[in-house]
Give the backbone structure.
Amino acid sequence: MGTTLQDTMDRANPNTLADSMRTIKLGQVVRQNIVHTLRRENPDAAGTDPSDLAGLDSLVRPDDGKAMTVLRGYARASGGGPLGELAVIPPNLPPGPGQVSVAPGGNIVCNAGDAYTDVDVEYIPARGDVVELTASVAAGVLTLPAALVARGVVLLEEADALVGAAVGRKVVLPPGVGPAPGQASLDVPKTAVGFNAGDAVTQARVKLLVTAEFDLDHQLEVNSSLI
């Protein structure tokens, strides 16, 4: 077996180290492949992101740093919610009192009734590339391009109705959940974005996280031209 990219990076040869960092896209690795720690955040001040359900306070994560799962949460201060360790519930489930979760679009959310003003959260980001797409909607369905489907859609981060009876940002639901008015969701295979028929959307802009073009796991294992 030849020298892999992982071998090359482990050697940290100053002549090839910079090339190795460019090859793996070090910035993307730091953003998306390590546990992130948020300290003393104020979800109550952040309010609710338009892509998240009403009744939730959102810690809005950047487009390329959305959460995949929360590992741990802790509350120091609130406007009435229980303090101490927060109960981490599975992604896509709206958190109740004393709970923390990941919204379908990748933000970290708490129950608005808790009015938390000082929390710590540790979370694993979702790896991928951000793609924004404007396309026609037929019968409430925006069919995603085959090239994106082939790469693999990870998250629907945002959905904006541009033309229709009810325009504007839609609340993002979990894949496969039928949208009510003002909502949107991926289908289960993640090949299309659905809107409520009553919104009569005919054109929309969607922001997606898709599988990263650079396959980090594979590239670390294959032979490298760098020594």
About this structure: The chain has a mean pLDDT of 92.
